[in-house]
Specification:
heterodimer; A: 10 residues; mainly alpha; B: 215 residues; 9 helices; 0% strand; globular; protein transport (chain B); membrane (chain B); transmembrane helix (chain B)
Chain lengths: 10, 215
C-alpha cells in the first residue's frame, strides 16, 4: 500500500 | 519496477564503482570531496534504517547494503589509506556541512509524512541527498580542472537523478494513487543542482576537450 510504495525506492 | 528506475539505480551504482576504481587505480582522490562522501554515508545510514524492520525485495536489500558498504569504503580510502589520504585536498574542501545538515533536519521535523524517529530520519535523508553534492561542486569550482573520472562520476550521479524523475512520471501514470510530494520536490531540486555542471560537461564533450569550469 501507500507507505511501502513510497519506501520502495533507493 | 520500471526500466527508468532500474536504469537510474544502475547509473547510481556505476557512478560509485567509477569513483572507487579511480581511487584504487590511480591511488589518488585528488578532486574528490570527502565532505560530500561523508554526507552520502549519512544519507544512506539514515534512509536505510528500514533494513532492520522491513523487507521489500532481495534487490532492494542487496542494493542498500552495497550503497552503505561502498560509501564507507570510499571514506576509509580517503581518511585511512596511507597513500590515497595524502592526495586529499583538505585545504580546498572546506564546505561547512552543518549549513546543510541543520536546515535539512529542521525541514524534516516540519515537513514529513509521520512524526516518528525513522520517518523523520528517512525524510531528512531525502532532503540531505538533494544538496549533498554541493561540497563536491564547490571543490571542483575551486580546483578548476576536472579530471575525466571525477567528471564522469558527477555526470553519472546527475543522470541517475534525471532517470529517477522519468521513473516518477512513469509511476504517476501507471500506478493508481501513487504520489510522493516530498521525494518529487527534493528530487527535482537535486537534479537542478547538476544543470550547470551538465552544461559544461556536454560542452567539453562536444568540443572533444578536457572539462574546465569558469572562474
Amino acid at each position: 500500500e501507500w507507505h511501502s510504495a513510497i519506501h520502495d525506492e533507493l | 519496477m520500471n526500466i527508468f528506475r532500474l536504469a537510474g539505480d544502475m547509473t547510481h551504482l556505476l557512478s560509485i564503482i567509477v569513483l572507487l576504481l579511480k581511487i584504487q587505480a590511480t591511488k589518488s582522490c585528488a578532486g574528490v570531496s570527502l565532505k560530500t562522501q561523508e554526507l552520502y554515508a549519512v544519507v544512506f545510514v539514515t534512509r536505510y534504517l528500514d533494513l532492520f524492520y522491513s523487507f521489500i525485495s532481495l534487490y532492494n536489500t542487496v542494493m542498500k547494503i552495497i550503497f552503505l558498504l561502498t560509501a564507507f569504503t570510499i571514506i576509509w580510502y580517503m581518511r585511512k589509506h596511507k597513500v590515497v589520504c595524502q592526495t586529499y585536498d583538505k585545504e580546498q574542501d572546506t564546505f561547512r556541512v552543518l549549513f546543510l545538515i541543520v536546515p535539512c533536519f529542521v525541514l524534516a521535523l516540519l515537513v514529513n509524512h509521520e512524526m516518528s524517529v525513522t520517518e523523520v530520519l528517512w525524510t531528512f535523508s531525502i532532503y540531505l541527498e538533494a544538496v549533498a553534492i554541493l561540497p563536491q561542486l564547490v571543490l571542483l569550482q575551486r580546483t578548476k580542472n576536472v579530471d575525466n573520472l571525477t567528471g564522469n562520476y558527477i555526470f553519472m550521479l546527475g543522470s541517475y537523478r534525471a532517470l529517477y524523475l522519468v521513473n516518477w512520471v512513469y509511476r504517476y501514470f501507471t500506478e493508481l494513487g501513487y504520489r510522493q510530494w516530498i521525494v518529487w520536490v527534493s528530487g527535482t531540486v537535486q537534479t537542478c543542482v547538476y544543470l550547470d555542471f551538465f552544461y559544461y560537461y556536454v560542452q567539453a564533450w562536444r568540443n572533444n576537450e578536457r572539462m574546465k569550469l569558469p572562474g
